[in-house]
Amino acid sequence: MAPATKEHSAEEVDGHYALKSIIFSVVTPFVLKAAVLLGIPDMIAKSGPLTLAQIFSRLQGATNPQPDLLHRILQYLVYKKILSEETSGGETRYGGTGISKWLAEEQHLLLVCTYDHAAASLHKLHEAVLHGGHPYEIANKVHVWGHDDEEYNTLLNHAMVAWSSVTIKLILEAYDGFNGAKKLVDVGGGLGMCAGKIKAKYPEAEVVNFDLPHTVSSAPKTPGVKHVGGDMFESVPEGDLLLIKSVLLNFSDDHCDKLLRNCFKSLPKGGKLVIVDLIHTNDAPFERDLDMAMFSFTEGGRIRTFEEYKELIERTGFSGVNLVKMPSRDQVIEAYKD
To answer: Closest by alpha carbon to 102, among 192, 167, 17, 171?
Structure first.
């Protein structure tokens, strides 16, 4: 703790610098973006620990490269534990950490969140509080899924794949609730990565990946998976098991109500709904940060508690709502149409 002064207590002095630290932490995701665009995480993931000179020599497209600035970025990444640092024989090498491993694989999410469209919405949080609406739409005059910006849409689609790739692996290892499904529809399934993983484990099931037409039109062909385009707020393809993964957190209660009612209509009696999503708890700082991201970037999206999910689901006609704990931050909620 900092020493007290004549005018300020030690707690106040600490608070002064804690505030500055919070303010200047705004640079962190943009330093990460610079590292990604320079190719640093990929270099280290492919080659292992590298010296400053080795990283510098592998930079692409430089016209007036600045090794001192690169060194400052590397040192910052070490401070943030995104890279490791080891000195031996007079040489310092920069290596990977648990964070940089994922940065190399999930860089699209970072690039989406630091894209101009997303950054613009952060300037509009107060306007949403004062006047209503959603920060993203106030800033961009379109919702996050409605852009005609091809680069941004590509980043967004790949970010969703990266978001789900580890989670679906953990879910399929720990959860057997897809077993026995005759026709499984992944509602809001993006490019169909999750549908493909499910089909590979349960080849006897008919599997449909359902999302917006412009999304499924760019989806890669996946053996055994049928891609169907449409608007989930208007209707959902019929199936005896419907999966909604990492979708509901993006939308308001009213939107979720529409979607869940459409799911209820599309299921036969005895049909099953499986929701995979983050569940809000009081001791989870990641979920709190993500809740603010949902406020900033989506149409009323938020991180909900299980009780909030249960209320949403039951009021749309479902019963037997049950939480199935998973070995991941995302959890499974089951519900049935009696």
So the answer is: 167
Sign of the torsion angle spanned by Cα atoms 38, 44, 45, 46: positive
Backbone angles phi, psi at 216, to 5 degrees: -70, -20
- Largest Cα separation within the chain, whole Å, is 76
What is the pairing mode between strands 241-245 and 183-187?
parallel
Q: DSSP letter at 320?
A: E
CA distance 40 to 270: 51
User: pTM here?
Assistant: 0.84
Distance CA 211, CA 199 (A): 17
In contact, 195 and 228? CB cutoff 8 Å: no
Q: Quick check: 1 pLDDT over 70?
A: no
* Closest C-alpha among 115, 119, 189, 190 to residue 152: 115
pLDDT tens column, 322-331: 999 998 889 9
Would you state the structure tokens that stand for residue 29, as one six-digit string? 């995701």
